[in-house]
Amino acid sequence: MELSSRLKALPPYLFAELDEMKRKKVLEGVDVIDFGVGDPDLPTPRHIVEEMQRAVEKEENQKYPSYEGKLEFREAVAEFYGRRKKVDLNPETQVIALIGSKEGIAHLPLAFVNPGDIVLVPDPGYPVYYSSAILAEGKPYKVPLKEENGFLPDLESIPDDVAKKAKIFFLNYPNNPTTAVAEMDFIKECVDFCIDNEIVLAHDAAYSEIAFDYRPKSFLEYENSFECTIEFGSLSKTYNMTGWRIGYAVGNEEIIRGLLKVKTNVDSGVFQAVQDAAIVALRGDDSVIEENNRVYKERRDVLVEGLRKLGFEVEKPKATFYVWMKVDGSSIEFAKTLLDKAGVLVTPGVGFGEHGEGYVRFALTRSVERIKEALERMESALNV
Ligand SMILES: Cc1ncc(COP(=O)(O)O)c(C=O)c1O
Q1: Within 13 Å of residue 124, how many CA atoms lie on the same side as its CB?
Q2: What is the Cα–Cα distance from 271 to 179, expressed in whole angstroms?
């Protein structure tokens, strides 16, 4: 069977060799410390699990859900935005439920991109922006995120003809993988740029609550952004619910309606029991979020300080549960050496795009004890 040209146009999977190396190491009995996956090791809080247990018993939850999500779920998202982001949302028209934010991100280009239209994607970036543009037969245009610009795109560097042909601009702050954050001045600049060029600004806020002594901004805190912006959010990282598959999209009503039209044709909504559990999460006590951040902050400090002692150049991130570290030469070679000599797995930056080359990413999803062990192993293996 021949694959479609769309599928053939997707970039190759860069980590196959590294995955194979990890598999072999594990088979050899090596206790690999894996900092690769951005999947919280902390459990979903008890009160959310207990609500799910109650909710699966309810007969009404056994039916098809509505496409846009329960009104009560959408109200809970709007309340969460009011409480944490100082943004007013109309739950009826400006909020929909998603089967995880990845689902919404992946479907958005199908709503707004015609074959050959440009989609602006950050490089390095979460790979789904690029692949969703390809699947909609759009042309991804990579906008570099460079360290000298604080890993923010330089909008002036985007040629006018590219901006005019662009339909969507994907952005993501707090950023995976660079950990950069966006301040209001930059947010305003992006929104104004998208309004001027009639571009949908798609802001991915998957790490919106993971921050240390810092409050990440919603792009919707700038009032003009409602003219052009859709913001994606997720319960995955905020409440340690990656496996539950629930997120939301909020913002401009027309954009939300466009995305909903795609979804109406390809999926049938989020299991309502999961929505009930998510309502309890979103309306719950924010100490759950603070406790997660306390744990990640301690891990961040141990890892960054340890890496600095080993001679690496690395910043303490203000947000996200990642550490983005500069390395000499090829990031894939660095990761392979680290795995081979120390049994420590990190993600090579080049996997997030060519401008990620020269960096590796650690996910802070391992305990302080494991982080310390990894640092000790690195010290002896790398002879530093
Ligand atoms: C930047 C970014 N956006 C979106 C997602 C998707 O999250 P989910 O689909 O679990 O909501 C992830 C997951 O790792 C991510 O890193």
Answers
A1: 25
A2: 32
Q: Which of 236, 238, 240, 244 to mutate to test the pocket of ligand 1 (most atoms within 8 A of CB)?
A: 236
Nearest atom in ligand 1 to the alpha carbon of residue 237 is 10
Q: Which residue has the tokens 């958005």?
A: 108
Strand 118-123 to 33-34 pairing:
unpaired
pTM score above 0.70 = yes
- For residue 221, what is the DSSP state? G
Name which residue sits closest to atom 5 of ligand 1, judged by CA: 102
Within the chain, strands assigned E span 33-34, 95-98, 118-123, 139-144, 166-172, 200-204, 229-234, 247-251, 322-326, 344-345, 347-348, 359-363
- Residue 101 Cα to ligand 1 midpoint, Å, equals 6
- SS3 percent helix, strand, coil of the chain, rounded to 5, is 50, 15, 35
Ligand 1 contacts (CB < 6 A) are 38, 100-102, 126, 172, 176, 204, 206, 234, 236, 242, 247
pLDDT tens, position by position, 171-229 = 999 999 999 999 999 999 999 999 999 999 999 999 999 999 899 999 999 989 999 99
Strands 118-123 and 139-144, sheet pairing: parallel
Give 44-58 pLDDT, tens digit per residue: 999 999 999 999 999
| Residue given tokens 């109406």 in the structure block | 264
Indicate the Cα dihedral angle 72, 281, 284, 81, nearest 10°. -60
189 with 155: CB under 8 angstroms? yes
CB 46 within 8 A of CB 225: no
How many residues does this entry show for the chain? 384
